[in-house]
Specification:
alpha/beta; Spore Coat Polysaccharide Biosynthesis Protein SpsA, Chain A; seven-stranded mixed sheet; two-stranded antiparallel sheet; 11 strands
Length: 237
């Protein structure tokens, strides 16, 4: 570790098949408001000059990437993805290992969250600047939450004030993130997100308020929702 100021790196996993989306083409290559989903996501990250590089673990052999103009930016690098998100993130970390310090920041963002705003990312960076571990964007839960059994019987109503819906980016120190993901995988456990890996290793992450419109495109109908969000965001500018 050096005494230099921490740098900021982004990893955007894009190797998933998106089975719930139900289409032959991966969801990041579908049209959304005049461009591909991946183009929107990468462009919003590229708008932040503080980010040194954006690593996208993915199927690098896919011809669809040639249709994503943002991939021509020298800060964007495609690397092979893994069989699960955690392995893709590790591949992304390996791609920057020779350039990153243990104390550098890594922002992991879903390729399927194209509605993230630069201001919200900047807020995350600012609020975590002095934090030893890191944290994530998360939004309050507006719906009533029910605790249910495997066969869909309601057991109880939980206090939604105690819960947050996790979003991305999730931003953690390079060294701690790599160590935590590896530790969980070594124990044959698969983290659902980066914060879960940090929790598993006993590190306490901080929640930063995320916007409700930072949705993840999971099903095909989400494209229409995302398009409406983007048009509203354009009116905000």
């Amino acid at each position: 570790m050096t005494d230099r100021s921490p740098k900021y790196w982004a990893i955007v996993p894009a190797a998933g098949l998106g089975q719930r989306f139900g289409a032959d083409i991966p969801k990041q290559f579908h049209q959304l408001n005049g461009a591909l989903v991946a183009q929107h996501t990468l462009s919003r990250l590229l708008s932040l000059s503080i980010i040194e590089a954006i690593i996208a673990p993915c199927d690098v052999g896919s011809g669809y990437w040639s249709k994503v103009a943002a991939c021509n930016d020298p800060r964007v690098q495609l690397v092979p993805g893994g069989k699960q998100r955690a392995y893709s993130v590790l591949n992304g970390l390996a791609a920057i290992e020779s350039r990153a310090d243990e104390n550098d920041w890594v922002l992991v963002h879903d390729m399927a969250r194209p509605c993230i705003t630069a201001n919200n990312i900047a807020q995350l960076i600012a609020e975590l600047a002095e934090h030893k571990v890191g944290g994530l964007l998360a939004a309050p839960v507006n719906d009533t939450l029910k605790f249910v059994t495997a066969d869909n019987r309601i057991i109880s109503t939980v206090n939604r004030a105690e819960y947050r819906a996790a979003q991305t980016p999730q931003m953690f120190r390079f060294g701690l993130l790599k160590k935590s993901i590896k530790a969980m995988l070594d124990d044959n456990k698969l983290p659902t997100d980066e914060a879960a890996a940090m929790e598993y290793s006993g590190f306490e992450a901080l929640v930063v308020n995320g916007r409700q419109d930072n949705i993840k495109i999971t099903r095909r109908e989400d494209l229409a929702i995302a398009e409406a969000i983007m048009k509203n965001q354009e009116r905000e500018q």
